[in-house]
Amino acid sequence: MKMPSEGKQYVTILGATGSVGINTLDVIGRHPDQYELYALTANSNWELLADQCCTFTPEFAVLINKECAPQLEDRLLQAGSKTKVLTGKDNLCSVAAHEDVDVVMAAIVGGAGLEPTLSSAGAGKKLLLANKESLVMSGSLFMQAVERAGTTLLPIDSEHNAIFQSLANGAPGHADGVRKILLTGSGGPLLGKPIEALSEVTPDEACAHPNWKMGRKISVDSASMMNKGLELIEACWLFSVKPNDIEIVIHPQSIVHSMVEYVDGSVVAQMGNPDMRIPIAHGLAWPGRIDSGVKGLEFTGLGDMNFEPVNLERYPCLALCQEVAWQPQSAAIALNAANEVAVQHFLDELIPFTDIPILIENVLEQTSREEAHTIESILALDEEARHRAMEFIRAR
Ligand code: NAD
Ligand code: MG
């Protein structure tokens, strides 16, 4: 069994082939003296996973799509790589929780990330959380697992990372003296589009984010501001605050990544170029600092910075999240599941952009409000909501 060299952190990246995964490897690649890879995981992109294994020599590569595993094995064999290939969800959970692992980057997209992320949370790792959907779905169960295992939970979502830093690097939950949190969002690529034209938006238009390069699901969520709504729920859990402690502000330039206002009137903000390597490097090195590869801000060339209130008529998905944030867990599970189904169908050009909130609202109307304290109940509610979402689409 390979062990990390003296003084190095042993890292697992869940979702290594995605946007956050690639950025994480970029940062790690700058610090070979500090980090070594235990496992890299992917859904089906075996070609990129093979390249990553050759460069970063992890002990394990986990591929969810079993059919692609022989191709990955062949490619690694040809390249003389010693990385062992595993498949299936159980292996995803075990590389996320293995005793040798120090750090886990949770960067799978959507509810598929829930079980491995939760495994890692329950195993007391240093957990870098990008997969916001897992926290939205399992809120109290997740935070209890973190508490029980003494897990160091570091938010990687840029806004939450900014809030964490603005709380003077305080552990989430230690929000004493805080008057409110200002959660900023760019408004996405459709901010200036007439509301009547939103039904005609194409997947490529919705994914053309002005400031961030991200996976397609989160890009659509940014266009609908569902992303900001999920982030509102995420922030409530991470920082032990209520939805009305959080003000959402449109900041189209994405320079201020969020702020904390204290009772004395001080406002502390975290700023930086919009590049995920900044929060990733912060999480990896915390409580220290390492170079992320991102240049500093050139303030004299920045131009204007604007801050505006949100028009909820333009962003009905955000309005739904603001209601759900107050409700029992089943509502957040249904909202997340219905959104995932709706976004996939929008990306496949099967429903218009404006059907996304209609579908979610319909599924929420059929969802009873109840808490969910076990993984089994969460997964059952998730499946039920996906089923309802599919029924809605079929009937449309
Ligand atoms: P992405 O689509 O680029 O990558 C997703 C990764 O998850 C890939 O490695 C893919 O192989 C893996 N994956 C997908 N389906 C899977 C499944 N069923 N089982 C196992 N693995 C699976 O996504 P992304 O943009 O990197 O986002 C990842 C997560 O990070 C999301 O939860 C997103 O909300 C969050 N996040 C992303 C950004 C960003 O800049 N991209 C910023 C903040 C938060
Ligand atoms: Mg974010």
Describe the protein's architecture and organization.
- Strands 4-3-2-1-5-6-7 form a seven-stranded parallel β-sheet, with helices on both faces. The protein has a four-stranded mixed β-sheet with strand order 9-8-10-11, covered by helices on one side.
- The longest helix is centred in the last third of the chain and has 21 residues.
- By secondary structure, it is of the alpha/beta class.
- It has 15 helices and eleven strands.
- Among the domains are: 147 residues, Rossmann fold (3-Layer(aba) Sandwich), CATH 3.40.50.720; 70 residues, Rna Polymerase Sigma Factor, Chain: A, CATH 1.10.1740.
- The mean pLDDT is 96.
- Strand 1, helix 1 and strand 2 form a beta-alpha-beta unit.
- Bound molecules: nicotinamide-adenine-dinucleotide and magnesium ion.
- Nicotinamide-adenine-dinucleotide binds next to helix 1, helix 6 and helix 9.
Question: Could you outline the blueprint of secondary structure elements for this entry?
Answer:
Layout lengths: L8 E6 L4 H11 L5 E8 L3 H11 L3 E4 L5 H10 L5 E4 L1 H9 L5 E4 L7 H9 L3 E4 L2 H18 L2 E4 L2 H9 L11 E8 L17 H5 L8 H9 L1 H14 L6 E5 L5 E7 L4 E5 L5 H9 L30 H9 L4 H19 L7 H11 L9 H21 L1
Parallel strand pairs: 1-2, 1-5, 2-3, 3-4, 5-6, 6-7, 8-9
Antiparallel strand pairs: 8-10, 10-11
**Count of DSSP strands:** 11
The CATH architecture category of one domain equals 3-Layer(aba) Sandwich
Shape: globular
**Average pLDDT:** 96
Strand neighbour order, sheet with most strands: 4-3-2-1-5-6-7
The CATH class designation of one domain is Alpha Beta
The percent range for helix content is 40-55%
Class from helix and strand fractions: alpha/beta
**What is the terminal separation in angstroms?**
54 Å
Kindly report the name of the CATH homologous superfamily of one domain.
NAD(P)-binding Rossmann-like Domain
CATH topology of one domain: Rossmann fold
In terms of DSSP E residues, the strand content is 5-15%
Low-confidence stretches: none
- H and E order: EHEHEHEHEHEHEHEHHHEEEHHHHH
